[in-house]
Here is the input.
Amino acid sequence: QVQLVESGGGLVQPGGSLRLSCAASGFAFSSAAMAWYRQAPGKGREMVATISGAGGTTNYAGSVKGRFTISRDNAKNTVYLQMDSLKPDDTAVYYCKTYYLPYWGQGTQVTVSS
Here is the structure.
């Protein structure tokens, strides 16, 4: 049974940082490309960042490039999203997903507000 469990969300002030984690189980994690998505209130779900199975290739949405960093630890079956210089527009529910397979986590709320 595939499971993706996100953690690390919360309330942060503009300019602050958060690190999201996604613990994976039930599939061959080290060979699976992974992605982070987000959905802001009243908006569609958008892809934020992706990472290849070995971690050597990453891609970012233009809105987060230079501020967010996706990484993974295949020994821990975990993918991370380091978010720096956060803006109010980054407020959303953040989801972890297997890039090619239709498995989603339950999401974690990130709120950027003073």
Summary: The two ends are 40 Å apart (CA to CA). Residues 39 and 45 are 4 Å apart (CA to CA).
